[in-house]
Amino acid sequence: MNISKIKLRRVLKTDLEYFRDWRNSPEIWKNNTQFTFLNMKNQKKWFKSLSKKDSKKEMFTIVNSKNIPVGICGLTNLDPIEKSGKVAIIIGEINVQSKGIGTQGLKLLLEYGFKKKKLHRIEAEVIEFNKKSLSFFQKFNFKKEVRLRNYLFRDNKWWDMIVFSKIISD
Ligand SMILES: CC(C)(COP(=O)(O)OP(=O)(O)OC[C@H]1O[C@@H](n2cnc3c(N)ncnc32)[C@H](O)[C@@H]1OP(=O)(O)O)[C@@H](O)C(=O)NCCC(=O)NCCS
Fold first, then answer.
1. Best mutation site among 8, 33, 98 for ligand 1, i.e. most ligand atoms within 8 A of its Cβ?
2. Best CA proximity match to 29, nearest among 20, 16, 42
3. Is residue 154 part of a domain?
4. Residues with Cβ < 8 Å from 89, sequence gap 6 or more?
């Protein structure tokens, strides 16, 4: 599908309402490891934490060709000694998912992580029922590494967490 080019840019305060609404939507929330809902108070606190000197995360807003936010992605758990980090990525609206935006976003994020930040290893965590995401990371040659058994309790059931990793030579 021919979709317009997206860009990653730094997170602005005006993006926070988008993030809150996306994260609280049932389609995104159910795939997230954090069980809590977001509000503007915790969003503003999170935004402040991004610019802290000792912050272990670098987040970007994914914007479309009209500069409208369509998603968020970034690297968390950054460890400068071990040169590792973990992917976070959300394409916000369900009607813009599965149109190639995630692919463009993750490609740019991996380039940033491996080339600019010179990371050696990038991890991704996916709940076992998130079939889209399982397929998404495998498409990028992330390797299935560990299955954390009964990691989360959702809908009256225990679910495993699958940990993927990609190292620079993969
Ligand atoms: C997972 C996510 C980031 C993928 O981004 P996207 O823009 O929807 O995905 P793309 O259109 O770029 O598709 C990339 C790959 O993802 C997988 N995928 C996308 N939509 C899919 C669907 N409806 N069913 C199954 N696999 C799907 C496929 O492997 C696809 O590759 P292909 O097009 O060659 O088949 C996005 O769907 C999302 O934000 N999901 C909800 C939040 C989430 O789960 N984030 C990840 C937490 S670990």
1. 98
2. 20
3. no
4. 71, 72, 73, 74, 102, 105, 106, 109
CATH of the domain at 114: 3.40.630.30
Residue 3 reports pLDDT greater than 70: no
Ligand 1 centroid to 136 CA: how many Å? 5
pTM higher than the cut 0.90:
yes
103 in any annotated domain: yes
Domain containing residue 77: 7-123
Burial class (CB in 10 A: 0-12, 13-18, 19+), 137: buried
Number of domains in the chain: 1
- pLDDT digit string, tens, across residues 66-76: 999 999 999 99
Q: In whole angstroms, what is the distance from residue 133 CA to residue 1 CA? A: 19
Ligand 1 midpoint to CA 101 (Å): 9
Specify if 98 maps to a domain: yes
Is residue 79 in a domain? Answer: yes
Q: What share of the chain is helix, strand, coil (3-state, %, to 5)?
A: 30, 35, 35
Output b/e per residue, 144-158; b: 16+ Cβ within 10 A: eeeeeeebbeeeeee
